[in-house]
Write a sequence for this structure.
């Protein structure tokens, strides 16, 4: 089957080439005859003396002598009903609404011809499917009559065209109708001889289809788009109308032939929409055959053949020469649309790439799809050296290759077969499968072809082309590691050798780019790719800490490269590296690993990361504002996470395993999310398209922290818990205890954020209120612990405890008033007076009934003296501020 598809691709060029040569030679012969006639006329004039050799020839006479005669209406076919003007072929799309409206108008006026063509075509189909007079004719006669009917219709159409034309008069479009129906009938006869009755072999059937296709090309050139449409539609529908074995894989070659016929006709006539129709029929017909087939190899090959035909035939070149602009240039930034052949090739490559990405089958079919995607990407890279308009198309199959790599790992047969040969599942001393090796080699092929294209002289966007090239193979290696997990099958060391071999390729590309470029930007990209792969290899054969340290080292290397060569991309890489480091320290292996891993590895991971970020910050230039902000916020966030981990490990060793759902355990679990929220809020002023991503991440992290905090304030609050609950006990020395960790630390962090960070006004006010409330709660609970011990949930309040709250309020009001005077702040002065008023209310409403004896006397005496002093101080401060 595969051989027939390849044969179709090879043999297809023969009739097309013959037709093109015939057309070109015919044109040259007409021009030669015209020139000979003019030359003979000129000689006759010279011989008769009508023209003197030294006479001056006028411009009009020169044009008459040198130029061939203008074509007559009989020589140039008139525009068909669907034919767009030549000038419209540079527009953004082919099937525009105005053209569809013109088609609808033509069908309303000439629908009889469409119905006639359909009826005549079905007559040929029914000849072979049902026979004549209830099947009295044998199969051979049915096939022969269908072919003869088709030939008769073509002869009738050609007779009408030669005598009356095909565009005007009473016979307008009748020749196209008859000839198109005849082509369909011949296609149906050949297919029935093979599909239904088995009268001929595949070789003979394919030869017959080739001959019919060549005839369709010739007739389409003469008749116009109506015949082309009828012939293409009929040829595409014939396999389904004649019946038989509709799932035969060799029919993929038939649909490749149908597409080639339409493209070949349109390559010369330039109707544009005929090419679109031809490709659409090729893709649709192949997809329908795939539905009834057991494998997808034929469809995969058809997809590649269709993409190649769409590139080659519209320009009639073995080496395409499509001019710029590229499709990517038309989309972003917005620019002029490329020529129609560029758009046609882009659409076909996109459709083929998507098809190869999703086509399903067995393990062999999947591997073939990967190979074809890699081959298509590599060929487009090398093939487009003389076609700058196609310079961006290789990115489509390359991206499809990477997406299929991830998709295949989910439930694909190739990935299942690979995973089933793990070391602990296969027989001893048996060789490991080569699946991952082949996939990585295919990705490397794409990278090398892309690098070769990027190194070509005069290539557009050399930096972007080089970056895209060096990304493919490393991304494939990362995808294989994350989704395919090759180490259990190949062994960690064997898989690491694959990655190191790819790193060596990146080093080679670094050298090649360094020799070609003066600014070394592409060499720096390849260097970072090589270092990233080395880091991945270290991760495979060492501990989890190694990859984290390697990523931090990469950030330092990127900063050093930027300092030395002024490469803006290095700042982007640093930001990405900080994001990946955050993922590793927070999620994978994350805080769970840091809570139970050996302390030395944890200190090395966090300490090495902090040291790397600090070094990168010192190396980075002041002009890299965004990268420096990311480095500083990342350093602060990772330092806070490190401190949280150390405190958690210390408390775990002190308190055992009963602290997880305590007031301080819940807040400790939420503190990392508070840190993540603040880190993203710090980066919000950087702007750009990531602003909304950062805002969303900050909001999500804030909600997670709020959930932990609400649990600590409510069900896990030691004041509300059962005093017999061990998890509710306050642990640690006075002041520096679990209450400080649960309420004091987040309160201080929120207050510091409100005072120091560039936050929106409402968010700053919310942080101030929440932070102050948490500190007040911490102070109140700490006072209760002083008088009642570690179990705060015991009932009742003692008189010393009640007076302690009053004393704390008075001291707080005095401190706020002192700060108001020192800062000359009206807002702080009003807050201080509010706290003093709250103290007064507490003494008169609560202390008067809750205290007794000497304690009540001291309470009111102290309140009176304090209020007198504070009132004088407040009046003095107000007078100074007014003056």
């Amino acid at each position: 089957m595969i051989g027939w598809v390849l044969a179709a691709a090879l043999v297809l060029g023969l009739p097309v080439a013959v037709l093109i040569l015939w057309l070109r030679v015919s044109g040259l012969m007409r021009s030669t005859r015209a020139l000979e006639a003019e030359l003979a006329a000129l000689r006759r004039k010279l011989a008769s003396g009508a023209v003197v050799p030294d006479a001056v020839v006028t411009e009009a006479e020169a044009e008459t002598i040198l130029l061939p005669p203008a074509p007559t209406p009989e020589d140039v076919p008139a525009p068909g009903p669907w034919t767009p003007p030549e000038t419209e072929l540079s527009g953004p799309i082919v099937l525009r609404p105005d053209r569809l409206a013109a088609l609808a108008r033509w069908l309303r006026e000439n629908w009889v011809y469409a119905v006639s063509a359909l009826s005549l075509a079905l007559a040929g189909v029914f000849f072979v499917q049902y026979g004549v007079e209830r099947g009295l004719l044998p199969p051979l006669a049915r096939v022969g009559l269908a072919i003869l009917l088709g030939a008769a219709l073509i002869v009738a159409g050609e007779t009408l065209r030669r005598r009356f034309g095909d565009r005007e008069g009473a016979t307008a479009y009748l020749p196209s109708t008859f000839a198109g129906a005849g082509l369909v009938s011949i296609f149906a006869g050949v297919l029935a001889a093979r599909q239904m009755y088995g009268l001929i072999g595949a070789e003979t059937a394919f030869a017959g289809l080739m001959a019919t296709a060549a005839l369709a090309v010739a007739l389409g050139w003469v008749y116009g788009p109506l015949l082309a449409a009828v012939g293409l539609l009929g040829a595409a529908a014939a396999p389904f109308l004649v019946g038989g074995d509709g799932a035969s894989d060799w029919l993929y070659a038939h649909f490749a032939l149908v597409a080639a016929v339409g493209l070949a006709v349109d390559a010369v006539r330039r109707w544009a929409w005929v090419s679109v129709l031809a490709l659409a029929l090729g893709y649709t017909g192949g997809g329908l055959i795939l539905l009834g087939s057991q494998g997808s190899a034929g469809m995969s090959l058809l997809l590649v053949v269709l993409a190649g035909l769409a590139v080659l035939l519209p320009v009639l070149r073995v080496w395409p020469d499509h001019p710029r602009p590229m499709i990517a240039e038309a989309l972003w930034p917005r620019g002029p649309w490329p020529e129609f052949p560029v758009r046609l090739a882009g659409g076909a490559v996109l459709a083929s790439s998507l098809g190869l990405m999703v086509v399903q089958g067995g393990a062999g079919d999947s591997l073939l799809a990967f190979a074809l995607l890699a081959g298509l990407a590599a060929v487009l890279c090398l093939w487009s050296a003389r076609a700058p308009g196609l310079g961006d198309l290789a990115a489509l199959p390359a991206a499809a290759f990477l997406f299929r790599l991830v998709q295949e790992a989910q439930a694909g047969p190739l990935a299942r077969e690979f995973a089933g040969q793990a070391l602990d599942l296969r027989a001893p001393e048996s060789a490991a499968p080569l699946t991952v090796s082949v996939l990585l080699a295919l990705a490397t092929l794409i990278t090398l072809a892309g690098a070769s294209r990027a190194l070509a002289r005069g290539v557009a966007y050399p930096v972007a082309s080089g970056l895209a090239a060096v990304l493919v193979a490393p991304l494939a290696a990362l995808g294989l590691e994350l989704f395919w997990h090759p180490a259990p099958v190949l062994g960690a060391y064997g898989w690491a050798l694959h990655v190191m071999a790819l790193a060596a390729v990146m080093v080679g590309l670094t050298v090649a780019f360094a020799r070609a470029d003066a600014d070394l930007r592409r060499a720096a990209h390849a260097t970072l790719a090589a270092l990233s792969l080395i880091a991945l290899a270290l991760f495979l054969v060492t501990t989890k800490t190694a990859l984290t340290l390697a990523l931090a080292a990469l950030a330092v290397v990127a900063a050093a490269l930027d300092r030395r060569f002024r490469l803006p991309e290095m700042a982007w890489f640093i930001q990405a590296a900080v994001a990946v480091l955050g993922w590793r320290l927070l999620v994978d292996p994350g805080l769970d690993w840091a809570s139970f891993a050996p302390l030395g590895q944890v200190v090395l991971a966090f300490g090495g990361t902090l040291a790397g970020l600090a070094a990168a910050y010192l190396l980075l230039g002041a002009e890299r504002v965004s990268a420096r902000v990311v480095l500083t916020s990342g350093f602060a966030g990772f330092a806070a996470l490190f401190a949280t981990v150390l405190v958690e490990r210390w408390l775990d060793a002190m308190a055992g395993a009963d602290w997880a759902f305590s007031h301080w355990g819940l807040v400790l679990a939420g503190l990392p999310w508070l840190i993540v929220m603040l880190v993203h809020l710090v980066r919000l002023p950087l702007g750009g398209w990531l602003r909304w991503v950062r805002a969303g991440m900050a909001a999500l992290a804030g909600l997670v922290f709020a959930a932990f905090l609400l649990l600590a304030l409510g069900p896990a609050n030691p004041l509300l818990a059962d005093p017999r609950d061990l998890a509710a006990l306050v642990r640690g020395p006075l002041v520096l205890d679990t209450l400080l960790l649960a309420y004091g630390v987040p309160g201080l962090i929120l207050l510091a954020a409100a005072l120091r960070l560039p936050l929106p006004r409402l968010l700053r006010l919310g942080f101030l209120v929440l932070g102050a409330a948490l500190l007040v709660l911490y102070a109140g609970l700490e006072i209760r612990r002083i008088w009642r011990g570690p179990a705060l949930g015991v009932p009742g309040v003692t008189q010393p405890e009640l007076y302690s709250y009053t004393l704390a309020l008075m001291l707080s009001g005095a401190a706020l008033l002192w700060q108001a005077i020192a800062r000359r702040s009206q807002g702080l002065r009003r807050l201080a007076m509010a706290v003093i008023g709250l103290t007064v209310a507490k003494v008169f409403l609560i202390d008067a009934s809750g205290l007794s004896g000497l304690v009540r006397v001291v309470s009111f005496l102290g309140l009176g003296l304090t209020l007198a002093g504070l009132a004088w101080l407040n009046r003095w401060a107000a007078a100074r501020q007014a003056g």
The two ends are 100 Å apart (CA to CA). The CA atoms of residues 840 and 864 lie 9 Å apart. The longest helix spans residues 13-48.
